[in-house]
Structures are given as structure tokens and as C-alpha cells.
Amino acid sequence: MSHLSLLRGVGIPAGKGIIVTPLTVSRIEEIGEENYNGMLSVISFKKDSLGVEAQKLQYSDYEMLIHMAVDNVDLGEILKSALNIFTNKEWFINQYKGLHYIEDKAVMEIDEETFVAIKNIVQKQNYINDANKDEFNPANERAKKLRERMNKLKGELQQKNKDNGLNLSDVVSIVSNYSNDINILNVWDLTVYQLYESYLRIKLWDDFHNNYLHIVHMDDQDRKSMQHWGIPIEKINK
């Protein structure tokens, strides 16, 4: 899965004939932001979230999720709805077949590996958790360091948004008001990944210009550490 594919906003194969489609801001508005967040939470489930006792159980995150989804109808419905929306297929779940979908009247079962692939793609497309850290193998040590800086910035951005209480509607407002080409009429066509990449670039631009206003008060070291807003994202040193 390439960064270009995420930026372009195309569907990404997860195996077993499944294509994970990125949601646009418009689609999320139709679903409801609260419902969207709930579906992301279920897709991203980790048994560690249930506490110390759950960590001791000899179940994988996937096995635990399926067990809970079978026992809890509401949770099962959220999981099926999430998969329906992210893959454009109608999903079912039971204690014998686990997760499966219908394709040309045939029951198509998936294994844990395929579900994990779906989960990872959904997380990357929706800019959450550690999934946005690029997994490519850098050609040299310098490239590796640049990629690490980018991953660090993305992680800090996600945490800062969480700490500041920023939600999707806040980011939509910021990008549509401060971007040169994106406005309140066309922002709805962006995928979540495209939206957050635009937000990240605006944040860099804003940080640079705020620092530039104070350059006369900076010492030489601070001036050297300033980063221009137009540098490649991969070269950000946060």
C-alpha cells in the first residue's frame, strides 16, 4: 500500500477479492460522525482495552472480537455495518463461520489474516493509531531517518488533536477556511486521509509564519531550526 494510493483516494485490495474503499467527508456526514467513530473503534479493537484480565486470555484480538460480536448483538451490528461500509459488501457473522460475506450467491469466509489486512487499511485510510507509519524499507540511513521524522510528526499530530478535543468537523472547518484551493463547497469530496494531509500542511505553514514573525527575537540556533512550510513532508524534523 503506497502513500500515493492513499493520497489519490483509491480502493486498496485486502485479499480474498475484498477492496477497502476510503470514505469521503461527505459519506461520513451521511453516516454521522459519532457512528463513524464507533465503527472505527470496533474495527480497531484490541483486547488490551478490556483490562488486565482480558490480556491473560489465550485469544487473539480477532478471536476476542468475534466472540464478543456473537454474544453482543449491538456490537455485532456495528462490526457488520463497518465492514459493509468500508468494503461495499454485505457481511454476516456467526459462531461457526465467523465473518463471511455473500458473493454471487456463494458464502465467502475470511480468515484472521484477511481481517487484519482490512483493519490495517482502514486505519491508514482514516489516519488513526500507528497504522499511518509507512512500512516501506528505506534505501539508506538518511531516508530512514527522514521517514522516522515524518512518522513522529503524524503521531504527535494525532495525539495533539486528541488532547485538544479536535474532531473531524473541526478539521473540516480548518481546512476549508485556510486552504487556498479547498473550500466549504468541495471539502466534502476529500477522503479522510486527504483531509488530514491538507491539515498537516496548513499546520506547517502556520507554524513557519508564526516563527517568522518572531525571528528578530531568536538566537542563531532557533533560526537554524526553523522549517519552511514548503519543504517535503518527509524532511520535517519535529
Commentary on this structure:
The protein has 238 residues and is mainly α. It has helices at residues 3-8, 25-31, 33-43, 52-56, 61-71, 73-87, 112-125, 141-163, 168-178, 192-213, 220-225, and strands at residues 12-15, 18-20, 91-94, 98-103, 106-109. Helix 3 crosses helix 6 (73-87) and helix 5 packs across helix 6 (73-87). The two termini are 25 Å apart.
What structural class is derived from the secondary structure elements? mainly alpha
Walk across the major sheet and give the strand order. 3-4-5
One letter per element, helices H and strands E, the order comes to HEEHHHHHEEEHHHHH
What is the gyration radius calculated from CA atoms?
Answer: 20 Å
Gap between N and C termini: 25 Å
State which percent range the strand residues make up.
5-15%
User: What would the average pLDDT be, to the nearest integer?
Assistant: 79
The best one-word shape is: globular
In DSSP terms (H or I, runs of 4 or more residues), the helix count works out at: 11
Largest sheet, if any? 3 strands, antiparallel
Number of strands: 5
* Proportion of residues in helical segments: 55-70%
Low-confidence stretches: 130-138, 228-234
